Amino acid sequence: MLKFIIKLGISALLTYATWHVGSAYVGYYRLKDAAEQAALTPGLTDAQLRTRVMQMAEENGAQIEEERLDVRRDARHIFVDAAYVQPIEVLPGYRYPWHFEWSVDVLIIPPMGISPRNRPNQP
Question: Which one, of 79, 34, 81, lies nearest residue 59 by Cα?
């Protein structure tokens, strides 16, 4: 009987940790996908995209520091890189600082008849 109770306790702790880690990863993937969708929005400046990603991070419970979010672009791509640390309660009363990092690379396809060299510059 004692062996069964110990196994049950270990199973409960594993379930608890899996639930909390899994929930954090759901938020991570949701944020990464939302950042990619925001980067696909035509006409957004880098500053607007940065603001939108920071808002989405807050909505998903991610505390991204300003210096850990990088938005840049070249003639054909928009890049969004971010990293943050989220404390996850892996055991009751014990939080572990989990590191998340992601990069988004969005290909820009200009409208027909406009080559990347003839496009107006975006700040």
Answer: 34
DSSP state of 38: H
Distance CA 106, CA 59 (A): 22
Q: Which amino acid is located at 92 in the chain? A: P
Nearest CA among 98, 123, 116 for reference residue 25: 98
Report the distance separating Cα 74 and Cα 28, nearest Å: 26
Contact (Cβ atoms closer than 8 angstroms) between residue 27 and residue 57 = no
pLDDT score recorded for residue 113:
60
In terms of pTM, does the model score above 0.85? Answer: no
pLDDT 10s digits, 12-71: 999 999 999 999 999 999 999 999 999 988 888 899 999 999 999 988 888 899 899 999
The answer to whether 80 touches 35, Cβ cutoff 8 Å, is yes
For residues 9 and 7, what is the distance between their CA atoms, to the nearest angstrom? 5
